[in-house]
Amino acid sequence: MANLITATFPKSIVVDEDTPRDLWPIHANPTQIHQVLLNLCVNARDAMPSGGTLRLRAENCVLDAASAARIDGARPGAWLVLHVEDTGTGIPPEMLPRIWDSFFSTKPADKGTGLGLSTVRGIVETHHGFITLQTELNYGTTFRVYLPPEESAVAGDARASAPSAGSGRGELILFVDDEVLIRDTADAILRDAGYRVVTAADGYEATARFEARAAEIALIITDLDMPNVDGETLASAIHVFYPALKILAISGLASRGMKKKTLDFASAYLAKPFTAQALLHSVDQLLHGKTTPA
C-alpha cells in the first residue's frame, strides 16, 4: 500500500511507513483488507488538498479489560492494529455521529459516494475486528483498524505480551486526571508494577499534593484537558521551581500537532486510550532510561 500511494498520490503528500517484522499474522481476505486500507488512504489524501504527511503503521497490541472498556466496540485480548494517520483538515464534531452511515459523506456531492467508511467498517466487523477514529480540526485524523491475530502466533495466550510486574523501584508518581476510571486504572497498573502513587483530579489539587511531597515525587503524569487548572499550566508552573522533574503528558487529542505542542513543556506524550503496556513503557523510559515492550 505504501508503494502504491508513493507512486500515485500527489508528491505534496509524504508517506511515512512503519511496518515491524514481528507482526502477528491474521486470517483474512487479502482483497478486502486492501480495500480497507485503500479507502482510508484515499480519504486521508482528500483531507490534505495542500499536502501533508500520511502515516501508515502496524503494531501488535494487547488490550486488558480496563483499556478495552474505554474503546467503543473493543474486546480484551491480542490484536494486530493498522494505523492510517493524516495531517489534514480533520472532521467537524457535528459530523462524527453520522460518519459510519451509508451514503453519508463529508465530501462534496461530486467527490464521494458516502460508501467508503461504511464499507470499511463492514469489512472489519466481518473479520471480527473493530475500528476507531480520532480527529482534531486542522490537525488531522487517525483511523485504527484492530484485527484478531492467529492464536498460534500469540503463543495461545495474549497475556504473554503483558508487561512484567516489578519494573518500578518504589518511585513515587503523581497521576493527575479528572476521569475517575482512568485515575483508578492507572493507579492499579502503576502499583502492580512496583511504583508508589498519589492521585489528583485536576491541576489545582495536584499542586497541593505536589507541594506536600515535592522531595519524593519522581514523575508527574498529567492529563491536559482538565477543569480549574489544566495540565499545561500545571507542568509549566512546576518547571519554574523543578526544571529537571520528568512530566508525562496524556491526552485524548492524539494528533501530531498536539504531541509537538506538548513536548514544549513536558518530557513525553502518551495518547489516550493507552494500554497498560504503553503506560509502563513510557514510565520506564522516563525514570529508568530503558525501553520495555509497548
Secondary-structure blueprint:
Layout: H1 2-8, E1 13-18, H2 30-46, E2 52-63, H3 65-69, E3 77-86, H4 116-126, E4 130-136, E5 140-147, E6 172-176, H5 180-192, E7 196-200, H6 203-212, E8 217-223, H7 231-241, E9 246-251, H8 256-262, E10 268-271, H9 276-288
Overview of this protein structure:
The chain is α/β, with parallel strands linked by helices. The protein has 9 helices and 10 strands. It has helices spanning 2-8, 30-46, 65-69, 116-126, 180-192, 203-212, 231-241, 256-262, 276-288; strands at 13-18, 52-63, 77-86, 130-136, 140-147, 172-176, 196-200, 217-223, 246-251, 268-271. The strands form 2 sheets. A 5-stranded mixed sheet has the order 1-2-3-5-4. Strand 1 (13-18), helix 2 (30-46) and strand 2 (52-63) form a beta-alpha-beta unit. Helix 2 runs antiparallel to helix 4 (116-126) and helix 6 runs parallel beside helix 7 (231-241). The longest helix has 17 residues, at 30-46. It is globular, with a radius of gyration of 20 Å.
